[in-house]
Amino acid sequence: MRTEVPRIQGELLDFDWTLKDTMLSPLRNFTRYIHESSDTFPLSPLLFWVLGMPTDAALRTRSRIVAIGARNMTIYPDTLAEDCSPTGSGLNYCRASEPNNMGGISSGVWPRLRSSTYIKNHDKLATELAIFENDKLFYDVFHAWISTPQGASMRGFLSLHHWYQNFTEWIEWMPEENNDLGGGIFLDKRRDMSSGFLNDVNNSTRRPKTPEKFCELLRYFLSNTEEAKVGIYNNGSFTLKTLEPAMDDNSPTCYPPGGDIRFSRMNAEMKCKLELDAVCELANSTQEVEVMTGIRTKIKALESPVNPIPYSFTWLFTEQYSVVRNEAYQNIILAIAAVLVITIFFLNHIWCAILVTLNVTMVLIDVVALMYLWGLSINSVSIVNLVLAIGLAVDYSAHVAHAFMSATGTRNERACKSMMEMGSDVIHGAFSTFLAVLVLSTSQSYIFRSLFQQFFGICIFGALHGLVVLPVVLSLVGPPTSKTEEEWVNKHPDAETSQKPTKLDGVEMNYVKTPTPTATPPPTVNSMAQADVDGGPKVVGVPNMDGRAVENNKS
Question: Are residues 38 and 15 in the same domain?
């Protein structure tokens, strides 16, 4: 956290779309807190320990009891602390009437954190993140800060290692006394007002103050699983091998190199957000995608061992914009291809199917143009409606084309017949669909409103192309109905009406050439026995009900 987080934050601030003043980061706020402290952040022994800090024993030898209201309190002036001695040589001149001049654990002039001794860039904190000289001091001060009202808002930005959480909870579980852990290890947790809270731990963060005590207690905690010693806080889940990277076994002041914070979050607003009226008034889906892909590329190029992951809730919607164009092309092409294949099968003519498919494609282009005029953007909702448009538009065109293929006569005649046969049905279908979506026109929902707008275009343009454009095209370049009809039309080019020639299958009629007509007509044939009357028709073969031919007797 001390090294990688500043790198990541620096890259985020250098990103072209980042609003630098909106950056929210635990380290950034922590650095600002240190920089803005008016007293340069005194390191009181009540909370911290640094090299050169007086020991507990040294403080106790210089203690004295003063009355604060009805309570007596022990204070511990130090050579670094303000005392009320006129000469600075002792405490004999500290008067009870001058309480503001009394040195003490929390009000003395202790070592200052904001100095080159503890922070490398102490004079650049206005523009840079604080870089501490000592790992443990950094985490001591950081944990003390997030326990204050100033740092409480950043707690949700952090996630602690499980071993550290259980370690500090074990320390809190221990009784408030000088605990003998065995092997010469003690944990002093005494809370005595008369002793000024001088014990081994920071009572607010539950962290051992000195590096030696922290290392000693942590090794003890990770090396024991007995409930009598460490309670329920280490059941074997945490060992010295749990820490990665591992602590230095030969150092008495060891501190986990990886720190005790496993996760840190930082927030920053971009110049163009999903809401068009927020930061960038001209924001659109293209800019949203550029922001998302740009920050991902920039953070990935860091190759940081902490593996940072850029994330934004609005990217749940932006993700669709990054793929919606390709997905739209793919789905529309597949739908049009499906229309072509199906119409070939049902119309039984490739050229007619191609004309219907082109007609449907033009309807789709008209609907997209209407979307532009209406201000509808390309998104997941509109893409679904566009794919539906293809299925609805083919309905208006396919019926007219099928009627054209079933009609006979010239192209103009067949086009007129197809309109007479299917025109009213297409109009009824388009009008009923329009009525079905008309109720959505007053909706306040974007999904329902866009559904009405697109379906309105589908009904209008689909009907116009099916009833106006397609019949004209078919009358000019439409295919013939069948080979037999084409031959018949070629034989009768001037016929005003056309009828299919009739052919009786299974029946042969032979007419005998009759002599010169006489005045009397031939007698009526009433039976097969009389079929040989001269001059009458002779039936050669007539199929009966069971399919067998009946032969007549020739005379």
Answer: no
**Domain annotation covers residue 508:** no
Domain assignment present for 517: no
Separation between Cα atoms, residue 378 and residue 548, nearest integer Å: 70
Average pLDDT value over all residues in the chain: 77
| Residues 175 and 278 placed together within one structural domain of the fold | no
Question: Among candidates 213, 191, 211, 212, which has minimal Cα distance to 200?
Answer: 213
Same domain (yes/no): 347, 481: yes
**Number of domains comprising the chain:** 5
Buried b (16+ CB within 10 A) or exposed e, 41-55: bbbbbbbbbbeebbe
Specify the pLDDT at position 260. Answer: 84
Asked if residue 57 belongs to a domain, the reply is no
Question: Across-strand partners of 132?
Answer: 119
- Measure the CA–CA gap between 210 and 198, rounded to whole angstroms: 12
Instruction: Examine residue 307 and state whether it is found in any structural domain, yes or no.
Output: yes
Question: Do 466 and 346 belong to one domain?
Answer: yes
Q: pLDDT (tens digit, 9 = 90+) per residue, 54-66?
A: 666 666 666 666 6
Q: What one-letter code names the amino acid at 492?
A: H
- The structure tokens 């109720």 sit at 439
Each residue of 251-290: pLDDT tens digit?
888 888 878 888 788 888 887 654 544 555 555 677 788 8
Q: Tell me, what's the pLDDT at 355?
A: 92
Within the chain, what is the greatest distance between any pair of CA atoms?
Answer: 170
Contact between 541 and 551 (Cβ < 8 Å): yes
CB atoms within 10 A of CB 501: 9
Instruction: Answer whether 97's CB lies under 8 Å from 124's CB.
Output: no
Percentage, residues of the chain above pLDDT 70 = 72
Residue range 129-157, pLDDT digits in tens: 888 988 899 999 999 999 888 888 888 88
The residue segments making up the domain with residue 422 are 324-491
Specify the amino acid at residue 396.
Answer: Y
For residue 68 the two structure tokens come to: 């604060």
Q: Which helix (H) or strand (E) holds 66?
A: strand 64-68
Task: For residues 75 and 36, state if they share a domain.
Answer: no
Domain's final residue, options 447, 466, 491: 491
Residue 65 DSSP class: E
Residues 177 and 251 occupy one common structural domain: yes
> How far apart, in whole angstroms, are the C-alpha atoms of residue 281 and residue 261?
39
Q: Are residues 483 and 414 in the same domain?
A: yes
Which of 375-402 are b and which e, b meaning 16 or more Cβ less than 10 Å from the residue's Cβ? Answer: ebebbebbbbbbbebbebbbebbbbbbb
Instruction: Name the pLDDT band for 531 (thresholds 50, 70, 90).
Output: very low
pTM assigned to the model? 0.59
Write out pLDDT tens, residues 71-126. 666 665 543 344 444 444 444 444 445 444 444 555 555 788 898 889 998 889 88
What backbone phi and psi angles, to 5 degrees, belong to 183? 70, 25
What is residue 114's DSSP assignment?
A: S
Do 198 and 279 belong to one domain? no
